[in-house]
What does this fold into?
Amino acid sequence: MTNIKKILKAINRSQDDLAREVGISQGSVNHYANGNRKPSYDMAWKVVNALNKLGAKCTFSDVFPDPISESSQVA
It folds into this structure.
């Protein structure tokens, strides 16, 4: 799962704002935010860079946490 929604909320921005900055549809952002679709490596970096341009101060791992570490913490 990603932290896109959480980061957008923290910087008071919308999925539409992120979509415009990245150059994709709001629906694509929604799919990434909900984990319905996984972005390519390049697209994931575009999302991180766009979030930072919109006012976030985040790293790749802030937006896209390591799924292996995440699953071991749940158990």
Remarks:
- The chain is about 65% helix and 0% strand.
- The longest helix spans residues 41-53.
